[in-house]
């Protein structure tokens, strides 16, 4: 029985299963922020920030300079997920989304830790620690720091 368990552990600990899991992790984290980014722009545009976004950043989130912070969040939520899905500068992209998550947690929705943000932090943490994996442009291009 122990031999079978060791064999199973060896199978799931290989580089191919890790690559698949890291790919799914990248898509999951990027998808969360991409969907959020698309709610911040005018319908039919790529990066034209909506008036609703400015209103939310000012009134609901209480962010200073809502035109600037809203624009920065909108651009980051579009650009960083693209990097992460491609696996290009994965660690840097995941770190950026981790910082965004912590800002959201601390200043916008502090009650959302256990429901939502802990998962985002875990996904970003995995990518920061492990990188993009075998199926990433980082690996293809030979980036040492992801």
Describe the structure.
- This protein is an all-alpha fold and 146 residues long.
- The protein has one domain.
- 75% of the residues lie in helices and 0% in strands.
- The chain contains 7 helices and no strands.
- α2 crosses α6 (113-130) and α4 (66-86) runs antiparallel to α5.
- The chain starts with a helix and ends in a 5-residue tail after the last helix.
Task: Give me some keywords for this one.
mainly alpha, elongated, 0% strand, 7 helices, 146 residues
Query: Radius of gyration, Cα only, in angstroms?
Result: 18 Å
Any low-confidence stretches, pLDDT <50, length ≥5? Answer: none
Order of helix and strand elements from N to C terminus: HHHHHHH
Strand content: under 5%
The backbone outline, from C-alpha atoms, is: elongated
- The computed structural class is mainly alpha
Quantity of strands, as a count: 0
Sheet of most strands: none
Number of domains: 1
Helix amount = over 70%
């Amino acid at each position: 029985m122990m031999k079978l368990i060791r064999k199973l552990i060896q199978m799931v600990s290989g580089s191919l299963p890790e690559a698949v899991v890291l790919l799914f992790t990248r898509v999951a984290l990027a998808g969360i922020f991409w969907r959020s980014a698309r709610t911040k722009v005018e319908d039919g545009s790529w990066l034209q920030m909506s008036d609703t976004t400015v209103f939310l950043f000012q009134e609901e989130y209480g962010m200073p300079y809502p035109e600037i912070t809203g624009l920065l969040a909108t651009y980051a939520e579009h650009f960083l997920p693209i990097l992460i899905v491609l696996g290009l500068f994965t660690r840097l992209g995941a770190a950026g989304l981790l910082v965004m998550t912590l800002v959201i947690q601390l200043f916008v929705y502090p009650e959302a830790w256990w429901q939502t943000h802990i998962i985002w932090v875990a996904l970003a943490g995995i990518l920061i620690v492990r990188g993009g994996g075998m199926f990433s442009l980082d690996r293809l291009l030979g980036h040492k720091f992801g």
